[in-house]
Write a structure and sequence with these properties.
Helix content is 40%, strand content 19%.
């Protein structure tokens, strides 16, 4: 057996790339290949993928239902951190890869396998996300990344299709999509092909989850999301588990065209890449969560969390979910969320998601203090004089010393 590898656990999706790689691994390493499929919300794609893996020669196929774990242990923590990459991206692909890789490692241990493999190319972020997780959880694991191996000569889609046909691997009979897609409960992503021109508007028929905002209902819809200690627990007063809750929000937001994002992002490997995303339910969660925080989170705690949020988003994007700095930062986030219990009301209309109400039993908002009407002595306005003069002291001194340029 090449390099002593007898059994490989492959992260498998059922697409052309991983189907070709499954057969290529068998031939190149003369090894048994186990297909690992993580169910994180791909829906109807799962059963065809399972059958295709077996037809392609997989010795076994694992299909793990990880939907609740994905939302509870990955999506919700990222949301509590308000992790948004480069101001736009809600990290739908990034936050899923460590869970898939974790499942591969667990399968490797269960099966006594020698190696893990994935179909990520040498240009993208996913290779880093998969492999950082592999090594964090299993330090001495053998990793096979075909796209980076000298033995790999299937360097174009045409060559891969030819290889698939030669080996009896099913190739879609429809015309090739002019872009690639990745789907889970949090989002659907599109990249490559026609989207590589950042000036080119995405075709209207590309979107799968969300209605065209222009064609969305003419009447707005209201939705209420309840949180306990920063975690979403109810939709319109109905208690739901993590996977069901996000599924419900996806359904509500999608019909109003909420959650589309088109951005040029900076990949960890150094290049810029254009991505288009549909994140309907996640968009509602982030907006509602921030609204409840506005009532229940101390100002300085929120400021500190918000300063950490871009770093946490970067760590997730770059694949450092299981890094010690991530663990430390998330400990602060968890502490910051202990008071975040309440309900937010959102108004959805033709692509927009607006916060129109928020409430909490233990709120830091005191109407008696904030009112523009008579406050019955709850706030002494004269106190502001000393507050302002003390804050102005250094500015006055600087001016008198002649440092202020006017």
């Amino acid at each position: 057996m090449a390099n002593g590898v007898k059994k490989i656990v492959l992260a498998y999706s059922g697409g052309l790339d991983t189907s070709v790689i499954l057969k290529w691994l068998q031939e190149t390493y003369n090894a048994e290949v186990i297909a690992y499929i993580a169910d994180i919300g791909q829906g109807e794609e799962l059963e065809p993928a399972r059958r295709k893996a077996l037809d392609t020669g997989a010795s076994a196929v694992y299909v793990d239902d990880l939907r609740d774990e994905f939302v509870r242990d990955f999506v919700f923590p990222a949301m509590r951190a308000h992790a948004v990459y480069e101001g736009c991206y809600l990290l739908g692909t990034s936050v899923a890869r460590p869970l898939i890789a974790k499942g591969q490692i667990e399968t490797l241990r269960k099966e006594g396998a020698d190696a893990v493999s994935h179909g990520a190319t040498g240009k993208g972020n996913d290779q880093v996300r998969f492999e950082l997780t592999y090594f964090a959880l299993e330090p001495d694991v053998t990793v096979i990344a075909p796209w980076r191996e000298s033995k790999w000569d299937l360097t174009s889609r045409t060559k891969m299709i030819e290889y698939a046909k030669t080996h009896g691997i099913e190739v879609p009979s429809t015309a090739e999509k002019p872009y690639s897609m990745d789907r889970n409960l949090l989002h659907l992503s599109f990249e490559g092909g026609i989207l590589e021109d950042p000036w080119q508007e995405p075709p209207a028929d590309m979107f799968k989850l969300t209605a065209n905002p222009e064609d969305a209902p003419d009447q707005p819809e209201y939705v209420e999301i309840g949180f306990e200690a920063g975690t979403p627990v109810t939709v319109n007063n109905e208690q739901l588990g993590p996977g069901d809750l996000l599924t419900r929000l996806n359904s509500i937001a999608s019909k109003h065209g909420v959650g589309r994002v088109d951005l040029v992002e900076n990949r960890f490997v150094g290049m810029k890449s254009r991505g288009v995303y549909e994140t309907p339910g996640g968009t509602l969660l982030y907006a509602a969560h921030r609204a409840v925080e506005s009532l229940t989170m101390d100002r300085e705690v929120m400021l500190q969390r918000d300063e950490l949020a871009p770093k946490i988003a970067q760590l997730i994007y770059n694949g450092f979910w299981y890094a010690p700095e991530m663990e430390a930062l998330m400990a602060f986030v968890d502490k910051s969320q202990e008071t975040v219990t309440g309900v937010a009301r959102l108004k959805l209309y033709k692509g927009s998601c607006m916060v129109v109400g928020r409430k909490a039993e233990r709120t830091l908002y005191d109407e008696r203090i904030s009112t523009f009407e008579e406050d019955a002595g709850a706030y002494q306005q004269a106190d502001a004089t000393g507050f302002i003069r003390l804050n102005a002291l250094r500015l006055r001194v600087r001016n008198k010393a002649g440092f202020l340029k006017q």
